[in-house]
């Protein structure tokens, strides 16, 4: 049935009205979107509106910070971490803790968030984790390193492999390295600092222990037998006029003797016959004589024609047992002093007591260790390959791989001078074990979390996370609460920076790679997020008073004031 003229006119009119309504709705949507964008872009979207004036405290150095006793978990954690970010401060801090502290993979974190209705995606999570580390953690890690180099006398270092795809691709190597540095046991601050590098070159030691902008006060470095530390320390003095003594780890030496005794079946002899349960530590010599006499009787009663060789071997084994015992004695002396001060090792009284014990007892023990080694080599020179240089009247030693004792003896003689230094300096530890302990977080992450890191930015962000969580653990500071408190303080200081008149296009924004103009007109190049040329507003903030050990100090100060 055909429509009449009036019906057609009426229909056309309704379509016109419908179109008018559609245009109106479109205008409303555009207006709402514009308003929303203005809200998101506003600094008020990422800074907290709360007046912190009633919650601010000032430490002994004049640094103004938010009181750690003021709960910030529900006071700023719900705000976006960056401008136009879909992620709040609380969510990204939780993700950061899961990734760095609990070694959760980014894929698992994404699946967990997806189960909570938050479909972030792995790429988005990586960008947020790296950006968060660059903006909020990296400025603090710089302050930690600064404090370690300018306020400490002694640090310990270690390194381990960490595969970074971008480094291995550029440098054609299977592994890159992560370096860890921690403070000595007598220092006033407990801190750890990490760096990822594409190689194991000694230049990394120089980069870690020197800075053109500061006066390095560090006096000693304790490390293992890696030759890169020797080259780095020598270059620091030659090129930078920074004199740092290098001491070697007695624990590494002890491990070599322990390994030999275990493989030779002598470790059970040491534990069951020389120092059995309920025996005094000083009973060793008497028990050793009894053990040696009983073994001599067995050899003499045996019909074996090679009795002389057996007796020589017995002498060597007894000497190795003695050296192992003497090294253990050094730890007993230190431990006795440490326990007497209830493990509080940073007081002047402790340092004086430890110095006295080392000079009175440890010095004689060290002399006995090296006297025993040299006497052993006189009676059994085949343990090492010995060469005498007539020109400089010096002996050089090389490992004899045919003798199992050789490796341990070689380490002792090679680093004799550096192993003796602790006697005259009570700020030096016998062991490098503290540096190895902070490396466990890296190893756990590799074993449980990932096999490699893709980018250089990701590797440097990882080192920032390792620095923060290890420094928190050394100070018994809760990682999550510290990060929330840190973000609140940084946003507060950003407000003050804005109030002073400073502003740039990186304020409150997530850090990214940056396009830079080349010297050639019309050409550009890209720098990484952590590149020195990529300056961001967060780098302009003063981070004094915001480290984990500062947080601990603030908490204890307020508790004592109550």
* Beta-strand percentage range: 5-15%
Q: Characterize the largest beta sheet: strand count, sense, and whether it forms a barrel.
A: 5 strands, mixed
The number of distinct β-strands equals 11
Low-pLDDT segments, ≥5 res = none
Task: Evaluate the radius of gyration.
Answer: 32 Å
Query: What's the helix-strand series?
Result: HEEHHHEHEEHEHEHHHHHEEHHHHHEEH
Estimate the helix proportion, in percent. Answer: 40-55%
Strand order of the largest sheet: 5-4-3-6-7
**Span between termini:** 92 Å
Quick description:
The chain is of the alpha+beta class. 55% of the residues lie in helices and 10% in strands. Among the domains are: 140-248 and 434-438, Nucleotidyltransferase, domain 5; 250-431, no CATH class.
3D structure, described in words:
This protein is an alpha+beta fold and 562 residues long. Among the domains are: 140-248 and 434-438, 2-Layer Sandwich (Nucleotidyltransferase, domain 5); 250-431, no CATH class. 55% of the residues lie in helices and 10% in strands. It contains 18 helices and 11 strands. The strands form 4 sheets. It has a 5-stranded mixed β-sheet, with helices on both faces. Strands 1-2 form a two-stranded antiparallel ribbon. Strand 8 and strand 9 form a beta hairpin. The longest helix is centred in the first third of the chain and has 37 residues, at 5-41.
């Amino acid at each position: 049935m055909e429509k009449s003229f009036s019906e057609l006119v009426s229909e056309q009119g309704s379509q016109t009205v419908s179109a008018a309504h559609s245009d109106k709705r479109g205008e409303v949507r555009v207006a709402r979107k514009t308003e929303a964008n203005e809200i998101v872009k506003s600094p008020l979207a990422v800074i907290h509106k709360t007046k912190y004036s009633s919650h601010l405290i000032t430490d002994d150095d004049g640094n103004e910070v938010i009181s750690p006793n003021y709960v910030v978990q529900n006071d700023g954690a719900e705000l976006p971490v960056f401008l136009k970010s879909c992620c709040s401060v609380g969510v990204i801090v939780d993700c950061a803790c899961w990734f760095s502290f609990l070694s959760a993979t980014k894929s698992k974190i994404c699946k967990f968030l997806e189960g909570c209705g938050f479909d972030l995606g792995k790429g988005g999570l990586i960008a947020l984790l790296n950006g968060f580390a660059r903006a909020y953690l990296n400025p603090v890690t710089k302050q930690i390193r600064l404090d370690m180099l300018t306020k400490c006398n002694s640090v310990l270092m270690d390194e381990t492999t960490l595969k970074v795809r971008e480094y291995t691709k550029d440098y054609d190597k299977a592994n890159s390295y992560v370096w860890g540095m921690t403070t000595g046991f007598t220092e006033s601050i407990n801190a750890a600092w990490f760096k990822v590098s594409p190689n194991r070159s000694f230049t990394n030691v120089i980069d870690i222990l020197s800075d053109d902008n500061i006066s390095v006060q560090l006096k000693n470095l304790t490390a293992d037998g890696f030759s890169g530390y020797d080259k780095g320390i020598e270059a620091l003095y030659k090129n930078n006029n920074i004199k740092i003594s290098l001491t070697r780890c007695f624990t590494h030496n002890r491990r070599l003797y322990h390994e030999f005794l275990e493989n030779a079946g002598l470790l059970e002899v040491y534990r069951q016959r020389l120092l059995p349960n309920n025996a005094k530590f000083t009973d060793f010599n008497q028990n050793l004589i009894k053990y040696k006499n009983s073994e001599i009787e067995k050899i003499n009663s045996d019909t074996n024609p090679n009795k002389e060789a057996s007796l020589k071997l017995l002498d060597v084994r007894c000497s190795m047992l003695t050296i192992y015992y003497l090294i253990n004695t050094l730890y007993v002396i230190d431990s006795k002093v440490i326990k007497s001060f209830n493990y509080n090792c940073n007081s002047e009284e402790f340092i004086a007591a430890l110095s006295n014990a080392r000079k009175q007892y440890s010095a004689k023990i060290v002399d006995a260790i090296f006297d025993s080694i040299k006497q052993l080599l006189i009676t059994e020179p085949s343990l090492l390959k010995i060469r005498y240089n007539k020109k400089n009247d010096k002996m050089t030693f090389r490992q004899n791989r045919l003798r199992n004792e050789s490796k341990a003896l070689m380490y002792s003689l090679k680093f004799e001078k550096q192993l003796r230094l602790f006697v005259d300096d009570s700020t030096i530890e016998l062991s490098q074990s503290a540096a190895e302990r902070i490396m466990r977080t890296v190893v756990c992450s590799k074993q449980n979390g990932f096999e490699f890191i893709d980018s250089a930015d990701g590797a440097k962000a990882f080192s920032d996370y390792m620095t923060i969580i290890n420094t928190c653990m050394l100070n018994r500071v809760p990682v999550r609460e510290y990060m929330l408190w840190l973000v609140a303080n940084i946003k507060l200081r950003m407000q003050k920076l804005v109030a002073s008149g400073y502003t740039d296009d990186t304020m409150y924004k997530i850090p990214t790679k940056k396009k830079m103009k080349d010297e050639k007109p019309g050409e550009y190049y890209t720098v990484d997020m952590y590149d020195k040329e990529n300056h961001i507003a967060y780098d302009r903030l003063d981070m004094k008073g915001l480290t984990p050990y500062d947080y601990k100090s603030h908490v204890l100060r307020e508790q004592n004031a109550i």
